[in-house]
Amino acid sequence: MSLLGKDLVGLAGLSREQITTILDVAEPLREVSERAIKKVPTLRGMTVVNLFFEASTRTRISFEFAEKRMSADTVNVAASGSSVSKGETLVDTARNLEAMRIDMVVIRHASSGAARFLAERIESNVINAGDGTHEHPTQGLLDLLTLRQRFGTLEGKRICICGDVLHSRVARSNIWGLKSLGADVAVCGPRSLLPNAIGEMGVQVFSRIEQAIEWADALNVLRLQLERMQAGYIPSLREYNRVFGVTRARLERAPRDILILHPGPMNRGVEIDSDVADGPHSVILDQVTNGVAVRMAVLYLLAGQKASLADVAKGGAA
Amino acid sequence: MSALLVKGGRIVDPSQNLDAVGDVLLVDGIVAQCGGTIAAPAGAQVYDATGLVVTPGLIDVHVHLREPGREDVETVATGAHAAVAGGFTAVCAMPNTKPVTDNQATVGFVKRQGEAAGFARVYPIGAISVGQQGETLAEFGEMVAAGAVAFSDDGKPVENTQLMRTAMEYALTFNVPIVEHCEVMSLAHGGSMNEGIVSARLGLKGIPAEAEEIDVARCILLAKRTGGHVHLCHLSTKGSVDLVRWGKAQGINVTSEVCSHHISLTEEAVEGYNTNAKMNPPLRTAADVEALQQGLKDGTIDLLVTDHAPHHYDEKEREFADAPNGIVGLETALGVNITYLVETGILTLNEMVNRMSCLAAKIWHLPGGTLAKGSLGDVTVFDPKKRWVVDPKQFKSKGRNTPYGGHTLTGQAICTIVGGKIVHQVS
Ligand SMILES: [Zn+2]
Ligand SMILES: [Zn+2]
Q1: Dihedral-angle region of residue A308 (phi above 0 means left; psi in -120 to 50 means alpha; beta otherwise)
Q2: Which amino acids does the record list as binding Zn(2+) 2 (chain B) (predicted)?
Q3: Is A83 within 8 Å of chain B by CB?
Q4: CB 3.0–4.6 Å: which of A12, A63, B247, B270 could bond B220 by disulfide?
Q5: What DSSP string runs through B239-281?
Q6: What was the pLDDT predicted at A87?
Q7: Which residues have CB under 8 Å from B183's CB, separation 6+?
Q8: Is A293 strand, coil or helix?
Q9: H or E stretch at A297
Q10: What residues of A are in contact with residue B276 (Cβ under 8 Å)?
Q11: Which pTM was predicted?
């Protein structure tokens, strides 16, 4: 059994040691992507199924790169289904995958708990690539890696997650991961988009973006889904930008330089302005690069590889 | 003449203030004599109840038997069988069947299915509105004539407040309760568990306590206005208990019930996305559980019920938010209630029997609920100390969806007697 156990369904419950190990493994793996031949043989002969019940081009591509750079065989399954039939689909899919003797499954699903549901029913390793409004652990890990690279340590650093925390899987993974590594965590957004009991999760709650900017060393700005306006959680996107938007004018009043993270894709002019997204404090593209490295690390650790890290990074004979 | 003598048990009958070791004689389906030492008449069957508790047959006023429409999930017969296995001699069947039990013919059908099965007595509850659509009042009079004992759109609330008012007023003609599933749909919408820290952690949309409490308040105020009898289903929050307590103090004709699962489990049972802990109203917090237990103790909550809601295994075997609500309860309720209420000292055995039998008959005007001479020969014999492990595979219900599988409970029905005949017995 690997250090991570069989599956990675979330960052809740992972120890500081486990998270640190993933990040430590990810660091040297970044270098693989810098080479002319971006491949190591680590997972040669293993089959990974990317099972996406919900479209997510970015996450899927990032996983696919990670798998291919580790030399795994990958199969992409885009399973869609009406809300009525998807329950049967998930159970049946699990049984079918199990029968095909695959090694790992990366699952993205619209229902909270779907990754765990699958993990409990198949022998293969399961990696959660986002389940409903629950967790998105590899996104959380790439945020941690990005912050750690900039800050050296997260101990005592103040990170504020801004926006639609209620519907965000990234926010929960961030909260647990950041707290495990010793950061102070806050959330900021309209109360209609924050879970009622969020304070009980050990985070500060800011109701004004100005307060968050005054307090934080880094802001993780969440994507505001346009449906939230239609569903009546906020009056309009325009007003959201006026009240909660991360703008250059607001950042200029900050007492210190603030790192800006965003899980993408961005709504420029809504939750974040272009000059912030493309500005000097944005680490948004680092996040994308780190995403591949973190996913390689997770695949590596779940596969329970015995090879030393140095060998992996060197590449060996492909 | 057929005679059955239940000998030597501890007779607990709050309707007669009776708690003493003695015999009960049933002749031709009626209680012929109760208490003291009774000599067995010639040819009488004798049941030795030494060391056991003998009570008026337990009554559950809130069950879902799924027939007509979902006979694959439960039938009146399998549900009534599960009832007697759990010690219940009578159950009231909710009308959210397919088709809806909203007319004389369907009410009569459910009643006849119950009689044909020959297990627990089955009293149909008619729908308040035609098709449970919440628009037009159903024919209460016709349904009462066919055997309906109450009216409810359970499964959902009566959202139209004017319709609810009319229902309470119109039901006065027939002296039957209007039974409300308290939920403000626009507030509960899309929720799949209690709104709180656990839902925040699991990333599930929560149902706030106020979704129930606002409807509880509305119904109490309408009962005040109309003088009608409103019976509030499956209370789950402290706020609801407080509101009912206020209503009763005002002399308003409100009664209420609580499910065995709501007095024994908290929202923590949902951890791991356990769909067998998914129900509506959802499991709440420890503070709510305590308030519900206190509400039972002080009489704010009148009845203990199960809200028995069978579902197929594969319907529950799915993502949490999409799984159906409800659990089976008929075969675990007595054990759960003894374990979590009597063993813990919250209720005496007498108080529990009152809330599982005598009061149910009294406030819903049902036969039974007493062992007084001349009443129905419905008797439950149970062992209040027997420890047993819940094994859903043994259920008589077709449903296996219980959060208590593998739990050890104290207290079990040993012999269930309906109309003077033993219909369930543990050897
Ligand atoms: Zn209900
Ligand atoms: Zn019900």
Answers
A1: beta
A2: 154, 181, 234
A3: yes
A4: B247
A5: HHHHHHHHHHHTT--EEEEEETTTTT--GGGGTTT-GGG--SS
A6: 53
A7: B156, B157, B211, B212, B215, B280, B281
A8: helix
A9: helix A284-302
A10: none
A11: 0.93
